[in-house]
Specification:
Methyltransferase, Cobalt-precorrin-4 Transmethylase, Domain 2, S-adenosyl-L-methionine, 4pyrrol_Mease, precorrin-3B C17-methyltransferase activity, 9 helices, methyltransferase, single chain, alpha/beta
């Protein structure tokens, strides 16, 4: 393997949460490729002296193809993603596009702290038991498929994490998703909303399922809907794992 391409997770956006492995991957790179917002999240010291290639929204194919192209030229290249590169991000697309070059191109995925972990930490402990993660974006997945998954997760009593709940062009999906969950879950089920986790604009809100304020949701939001056991402990959302039930009876 003579060429190197790394897909690097930046975590939520705070440089303090950028892993040492991710820092090293970026520091060792000749070229940094990514969505403009994510390139901006890379600490300035790590960008110094490097070639920066950024694209806007919806430029995923173009930037991954460009990253592969420059990596095959012999330049150590990183594609940066928010959160973890293997969760609704770029690592899968990089592998698909680079499939015919895998004999000469070494691809490495560098894990990052995902949005669901950041949101969970800020809310308390809502993911202590089984949970399902569902993206509400129907740009690449038909809404009928998303709706089917939402119904199954709700009926199976999973805690549900919602990614991509809203954008400028998608504003109705979150309302429909909540309707689906409300049909099988108690009205007082805790629902956590985290916006821009660990960034300057961070906001954290907790609602009951029947009082959730859709107007608070934006494209940088992560939503966690509790299951039938999730409750409030103080001001935090907690889903019991079952220790007290088992050992204090």
């Amino acid at each position: 393997m003579s060429c190197s391409l790394k897909v690097v997770g930046l975590g939520p956006g705070d440089s303090a949460l950028l892993t040492p492995q991710a820092q090293k991957a970026i520091a060792d790179a000749d070229v940094i490729v990514g969505y403009t917002l994510y390139v901006d999240l890379v600490p300035e010291a790590l960008k110094e002296g490097k070639e920066l290639i950024s694209t806007g929204m919806m430029g995923e194919m173009a930037r991954c193809e460009k990253a592969i192209e420059v990596a095959l030229e012999g330049k150590n290249t990183v594609v940066v993603c928010s959160g973890d590169p293997g969760i609704y991000a770029m690592s899968g697309l990089v592998y698909e596009l680079a499939e015919e070059h895998l004999d000469t191109l070494e691809i490495e995925v560098v894990a990052g702290i995902p949005a669901l972990s950041a949101a969970s930490a800020l809310l308390g402990a809502p993911l202590m038991h089984d949970f399902a993660v569902i993206s509400l974006s129907d740009l690449l997945t038909e809404w009928a498929v998303i709706e089917k998954r939402l119904k199954a997760a709700a009926e199976a009593d999973f805690v549900i994490v919602l990614y991509n709940p809203k954008s400028k062009r998608r504003d109705w999906q979150i309302g429909k998703a909540l309707e689906i969950v409300q049909s099988v879950r108690s009205a007082d089920t805790p629902v956590g909303l985290v916006k821009s986790a660990y960034r300057k604009e961070q906001e954290t809100h907790v609602f009951s399922l029947n009082s959730f304020d859709i107007e608070q949701v934006d494209m940088l939001s992560t939503i966690i809907i509790g299951n039938s056991s999730t409750r409030m402990i103080g001001e935090k959302v907690v889903t019991p794992r079952g220790y007290l039930k088992k050992y204090r009876n």
